Amino acid sequence: MMKSARTGQTRRDLRSGRAGFRPEPRPLTYGAAVAAELAPLDGVAALGGDRPALRPAELASALAAARIAERAVVADTPGTGTALLTASAGVPLRPAFGSGSAAAHVASGAVALGGEWPSLRRDTDTLADLGTAAELGLGPRTSMLVAAVSVVAATC
Predict the structure, then answer these.
(1) Phi and psi of 57, rounded to 5°?
(2) What is the C-alpha separation between 73 and 117, in angstroms, rounded?
(3) Which of 30, 54, 92, 134 sits at 20 to 30 Å (Cα–Cα) from 42?
(4) Do 57 and 137 meet the contact criterion of CB atoms below 8 Å apart?
């Protein structure tokens, strides 16, 4: 069985939690490393989870555009955060999410992608952001949740 160059452990060791396994303090970095190990010919990407209006065609378009660079970044709507970060096969993702992350990714060598992709760029840090996402069109589960919360709020 192949051992990880990073930890010296087999995949089975990592999955089973055998003695000696220490969780990575930066889960996204660790996840990208594991993905790269499991599929070394594929690139990796990190996508913010707060994209309730995300359209698959926009994500596919951004991922296709990202192929121009070893690392690429799509900024969020305000332009300061990161909506999507990609790395080509064999290239470390090197994520730096948080305040000012888009600029940090560009400073670390990622190419900023300028596509329109409004549903990809629209994260939901505030209720106003959720309202804007709703204007773009929410998915069915988020729509049900927003409707249920609206009903509860209207009765309070």
Answers:
(1) -65, -35
(2) 13
(3) 54
(4) no
With tokens 């989870």, the residue in question is: 49
The token duo for 155 is 């009765």
Contact predicate 102/109, CB 8 Å: no
Q: What is the pLDDT of residues 36-78, one digit of tens each?
A: 999 999 999 999 888 999 999 999 999 999 999 999 999 999 9
Backbone angles phi and psi of 90, in degrees to 5: 80, 0
In the sheet with 44-47, reading across from the earlier edge strand, the strands are 44-47, 82-87, 71-75, 111-112
- Token pair for 7: 């930890």
Distance of CA 108 to the CA centre of its chain: 17
Q: Which parts of the chain are beta strand (E)?
A: 44-47, 71-75, 82-87, 111-112
